Amino acid sequence: MLGAAGVLAFAPVGWFAVNWLSLGGLFALLQAETGTARRVRRGALVAAAYGFGLFVAGVSWVYVSLSVFGGMPALLAGLATVLFCAVLALFPALAGALFVRLATPGWFRRALLFASLWTLAEWSRGWAFTGFPWLAAGYSQATPSPLAGYAPLLGVFGVSWSSALLGGLIFEVVRRWLSTEACSIRGWLRWCPALPLLATAVVLGGGALLHEVRWTQATGEPLSVALLQGNVAQDIKWRPERFFDSLRTYHRLAAENPARLTVLPETALPAFLDQVPGEYLDALQQLALRQNGDLLLGIAVADSRQYYNAALSLGAGGQQHYSKRHLVPFGEFVPAGFAWFMAMANIPMSDFTAGSPGQPPLRLAGQNVAVNICYEDAFGEEIIAALPAATLLVNLSNVAWFGDSLAPAQHLQIAQMRSLETGRMMLRATNTGMTAIVDIDGRVLSALPPFTRGALVGEVRGYSGATPYVRWGNWPVMVLAALLIAFTSSRQTMVPRA
User: Where are the transmembrane segments (predicted)?
Assistant: First the structure.
């Protein structure tokens, strides 16, 4: 129940303080398992139950993609979703087991240990088996949370660490406040909640002050942009008879909304590049040249026997392209040994080749644009590979696979964190939502309503410079977490386990 309730901290609800209370509740449950008889297995089960509740409630949209749009039988899709969430729950389970095993006396030491183990578990989940960092605690703390100020310094996992630490501190404040020993003056002096309350204020105040720091500077002239949202339903998108409807939709939106940079969503044109009429591409190029600008569209590209999920630019900057480098397992490539699983689903374009990891930013409309496609923006260290050279971030997505679920809003919140980490604006063009412009401080400046057809027109700036996270990535917070684990467990007394 604590894990499921924790989903309320994430978009679209966005009650960010719930994450502190939810993790504080988990901290309390794990505290109860420590003592003279270390119940490591119970600690693992408690944390696994928390994680399972979090993921079942928060990523249930996996079922939608497999069953509703993937054509998989409902029972099998439900089983696959449950198993997926169970595997994800192994990471918090390991953190819980280690906490019970390593915890030593001292409320602050335990809070630091809990936060560090939780952070390392989330980081591990972000790269193991190609990675699934969705619902990392730090994402719930994107703007307007005061903890968002830590993002440019330590990245999303540093924000996770501060949120988990707050959970432990809040538990300690409540525990001391309600303690029966505090009924006497002597007991109150011993159990006074002032110290954990002060530590809580320091964590919150530090984040709020850092949020006022500007790590990057605007560069170049303001740039007019048009982000197109075609709102083509996933269940009809790939039908041959709908092909020319899609072409007409995006041509009309681009023609009616001139801008120096026009962005179409991921696989906006439902075909391979060589299947699109040449005169249509010429027409898009002419639309871009009206403003002496560029148009960026998502399309699949075939190269010999290899296929890429790509973004192609047309316009003043000439033809440039970016190929998606971090593919979605089962959605864009078939992991070894799982061909039988994919045979029970009907997922088009599910056998792509990953693009090169060293692709430079595209030069579009006078800016160096770091392009990322779909859930690539969930991987902060991959995004910063194009920085500080890139002055603008652009994401092309198609989350129509997940229908009217939590996924589109959660994905936008992830984009907010990337802007905070990098000090760059993020432009998101999606098929069905959420198409949005995100400022460098993580605020969503404007967004189109989901499941509507239209263009989001606005003015943005490129930014230069580098935040500490751009320079160092995740390593500082990982090293800090490892050192804190070693420090907070160093006084452990060996005791027999039950």
Answer: 6-30, 42-63, 75-100, 112-135, 147-171, 191-210
